[in-house]
Fold this sequence. Notes:
This protein is an alpha/beta fold. It has three domains: 4-91, Alpha-Beta Plaits (2-Layer Sandwich), CATH 3.30.70.100; 114-224, Oxidized Rhodanese, domain 1; 244-316, no CATH class. The chain contains nine helices and 15 strands. Strand 12 (223-224) and strand 13 (231-232) form a beta hairpin. It comes from Mucilaginibacter paludis DSM 18603. InterPro entries: Rhodanese-like_dom, Rhodanese-like_dom_sf, Rhodanese_C, TrhO, TRHO_N. Belongs to the TrhO family. Pfam families: Rhodanese (PF00581), Rhodanese_C (PF12368), UPF0176_N (PF17773).
Amino acid sequence: MTKYQTLLYYCYSTITDAEQFTADHLKFCKSLNLVGRIIVADEGLNGTVSGTVESCQAYMDTLHADPRFAGIDFKVDDVEEPSFVKMHVRYKTEIVHSGLRDPNIINPQQKTGIHLEAKDFLAMKDRDDVVVLDVRSNYEHSVGKFKNAITLDIENFRDFPSKINELAQYKDKKIITYCTGGIKCEKASALLLHEGFSDVYQLHGGIIKYGKEAGGEDFEGKCYVFDNRLTVDVNAVNPVVISTCYNCGTTTAKMINCANPECNEHFTQCDACGEALEGCCSEECKQHPRKRVYDGTGYYVKVPQPVSALKLSRKVTETTNLENAG
């Protein structure tokens, strides 16, 4: 019998005095012995929480009883153990960072793409007049994506607006956006509509809900999630593995964080390379004095870190190489 669950959800709904709500909500979550990560903003909630079945049910019932959050569509996973170690509830300016806070441009409470349920997405996705667009980051779509989906070279969702011009060639098509749970699509589809795309849709509930309702058909690889599971299976119909080991190129679906906390890179790594490099992405990181102990999972509880000189140097090198290539 299932003892624990993990809930994934979001809700765009105006929260008055959101900073006070943040403090109160943290106390409420702790009273239920939940663990997880919730972002609170004036525009709504974005959370993943985990705990006993009873605690999760009490949490869902309480939010649904609040008129502001009555419409939340919780994605519920049965898990063997809680998917987090601690409970964090934080106030931020957006529940998903787009860098666009002008409500005249982005306001999911007023205008977004048409929501498609799983069966409708399945019926539309392979049509010639349809483009399926992944709005997630590189490390997410590298480990799994829909077959034939368009992906963008972005490190964070806040980079999405800068990629709009690359999508201009699809303005005469029907665009269907998708992401993990649907939250990014609310803003991505709103921005596409603002930029003159007329036929815009989004997969309601994202990859996770599609996996539950349509068996995940044609989702290739695994789905990255923002908890200690790192990735989850989605496709029970025609699964394949599309990712390869960052170090040796062997096919693998295992994604980890680099054991060097000043790197903390998301990458796929086979077990053999994980053992040889002790969970690091490179020999350089393996020799780092602050390297964390690798337990085979590649998941580490986040602690505040200084700006990574290693990541910055890699960025500079990549930019220089691109400029030289051009």
